[in-house]
Write a structure and sequence with these properties.
Order of helices and strands of chain B: EEEHEHEHHHEHEHEEHEEEHEH
CATH architecture of the largest domain in chain B: 3-Layer(aba) Sandwich
Number of strands of chain B: 13
Oligomer: heterodimer
Number of strands of chain A: 0
Distance between the termini of chain A: 27 Å
Helix content of chain A: over 70%
Largest sheet of chain B: 6 strands, mixed
Order of helices and strands of chain A: HHHHHHHHHHHH
Number of helices of chain A: 12
Strand content of chain A: under 5%
Largest interface: A-B, 22 and 24 residues
Distance between the termini of chain B: 33 Å
Largest sheet of chain A: none
Structural class of chain B: alpha/beta
Shape of chain B: globular
Chain lengths: ~250, ~300
């Protein structure tokens, strides 16, 4: 069996069977339940329309997915180094890129479970129906490269920095910076800096796409630039992770 | 030659960690790499295993360049690193089977049980590794290092945390590998007793430099001053003439404290005593040996 598959199976098993993985899924369920309840109440009161509610759930799932990815990524190398289990892996006949992609296998498993878990909530808040297919499709199409990119970023920082704490802190700050457009008001987002930031920010690309397709019902042909930004982010972070793993100090 | 290192130098940033390391290890040999803390032993191992590229000098392991051919090299060597970490949630059996598959080996349950029993962990397979003591983890680390039937075994403090029986069992495993299977073993340790019992060749490094390298017997005879022994002899006849090369320091009943001149080997001294009509029942070395050699070499370096 390919080393990538072997490491991915181990990582996935460790995440999904461990107390940590189950705690994460429980936390996700609670957050999504509370959020959905609030959003459905707002819809009932006509404070938000159905499309806006679906858009907000998609943004939240992507943010939580990215958060899970940076937490797992930060632990992937630095955590193993601290626990002494990295050295045997480096001394096995496995390349640094196989280790990186194997580690990502665990994160993909985590993201898939999270995505599946979010579907009932998307259905619940978007039950009037017309946005449901777009929501499910675009969450997979744009959420996946953004979330996995954060996973690669976490792995890269985890290989370069010597402790899990430093890697996690740096990854979280990066996530906050990239996710900050969600917190900016409309005027700031339309300023030159806001627009420039939006143009290169993969997180903005995903969130703006959710906005365009779910609220404004635009076709996918108008989202290709944003899709490219998300994919470039994924490729760049993957290259960064592999290079970091190769140059890692033992 | 399994390992051949000549004039190895390694700089980390501006700091010279290894300045001039030399080491040769042949098939079936057990080589003790000795030195004080921070001497560069673990760094030398990281160069041998291809985890660090040397700044200068030549390093060949199994006739391969450890950095350029690292994948091939890793498939042929076994390493027990100083910090032996595992996936604690797995059982030892599952862990070994998973680790073997990284080497494209399918280890079945019988083979796993055999490997565990070889390192003294028979019957421990189902328990999670988290429940293991330090000594058990060392044993499991050795089992992991043996998973690919390596031609070269590199062990960093392998008997750390083991009780005397455990140490003896690990010694027996290593001697069996070396003598019966021709495996070359590089043993990095602070325990001179391990080296005395296992190694035929040693290298002492300090401050990133090899101070001494060679076979233990040659080094001891070259470095040794007079060595003291305690003998139990079957003779109380005080008129017996003791050979000139042997000085009787004291006697208490059957027990003699003697000193042997540096230019003769102990076996030769015992023969001279027998020829002189003195029958020897027991011999204990009291001084000299590896510990004294190690202390004299490292103290001289520190003084310099």
């Amino acid at each position: 069996m390919n080393p990538i598959t072997l490491i991915a199976r181990k990582e996935g098993g460790e995440l999904l069977m461990s107390g940590r993985g189950l705690a994460w899924l429980l936390a996700l369920s609670i957050i999504m339940s509370v959020l959905s309840l609030l959003l459905v109440s707002n819809t009932e009161l006509s404070l938000l329309d159905n499309a806006q509610v679906v858009y907000m759930v998609m943004g939240t799932v992507t943010t939580l997915g990215a958060l899970l990815a940076v937490v797992l990524g930060s632990d992937a190398v630095a955590g193993e180094r601290e626990r002494g289990s990295l050295m045997p892996l480096l001394l096995a006949p496995v390349t640094p890129s196989q280790i990186v992609f194997g580690k990502m296998g665990g994160q993909i498993a985590g993201w898939v479970v999270m995505y599946l878990l979010s579907l009932p909530y998307v259905w619940a808040v978007g039950s009037s129906g017309q946005n449901l297919t777009q929501a499910v499709t675009y969450l997979a199409l744009f959420g996946t490269p953004v979330v996995l990119g954060f996973g690669f970023l976490g792995i890269a920082l985890s290989a370069r920095l010597r402790s899990v704490r430093s890697a996690l802190l740096t990854s979280l700050i990066t996530l906050m910076l990239l996710a900050s457009p969600l917190l900016l008001g409309p005027s700031l987002r339309q300023s030159t800096i806001g627009q420039l930031f939006d143009a290169v920010n993969p997180f903005s690309a995903a969130v703006n796409t959710f906005d365009s397709v779910v609220i404004d019902s635009q076709p996918i042909s108008m989202q290709l630039t944003r899709l490219s930004i998300a994919l470039v982010w994924l490729v760049l972070t993957a290259v960064f992770a592999i290079r970091s793993m190769r140059k890692m100090e033992i | 030659m399994l390992i051949e290192i000549r004039n190895l130098k390694l700089n980390l940033g501006t700091h010279a960690v290894l300045r001039d390391v030399n080491l040769t290890l042949q098939k079936g040999q057990i080589y003790g790499l000795l030195g004080p803390n921070g001497a560069g032993k673990s760094t030398t191992i990281s160069v041998i295993t291809g985890l660090r590229a040397p700044t200068a000098g030549s390093v060949r392991v199994l006739d391969l360049d450890p950095v350029a051919d690292s994948l091939h090299l890793h498939s042929r060597i076994g390493v027990l690193a100083e910090q032996a970490g595992f996936y604690d949630w797995m059982s030892a059996g599952d862990y070994l089977m998973w680790f073997a598959s990284l080497y494209q080996k399918n280890l079945d349950k019988t083979e796993t049980a055999h490997l565990l029993s070889r390192v003294g962990l028979a019957g421990q397979s189902p328990a999670p590794i988290a429940t293991y003591s330090r000594g058990m983890r060392q044993r499991l680390g050795l089992a992991r290092a043996l998973i690919n039937q390596p031609e070269l075994l590199i062990l960093d403090e392998p008997t750390n945390g083991l009780d005397p029986r455990g140490r003896r069992e690990i010694h027996d495993v290593l001697l069996d590998l070396s003598v019966n299977h021709g495996v070359g073993i590089l043993l990095c340790t602070h325990l001179l007793d391990d080296v005395d019992r296992l190694c035929t060749r040693i290298g002492i490094i300090a401050q990133g430099r090899t101070l001494l390298e060679g076979s233990i017997a040659d080094l001891l005879s070259a470095q040794r001053a007079a060595v003291r022994y305690r003998l139990r002899v079957d003779s109380t006849d005080e008129t017996l003439r003791i050979p000139d090369d042997i000085t009787l320091l004291a006697r208490a009943g059957d027990w003699w404290h003697v000193e042997i001149a540096s230019h003769i080997k102990p076996a030769g001294a015992w023969r001279k005593l027998l020829d002189a009509g003195i029958r020897i029942d027991e011999i204990h070395r009291e001084g000299g040996g590896l510990e004294e050699l190690y202390m004299s070499v490292t103290e001289a370096k520190e003084a310099a």
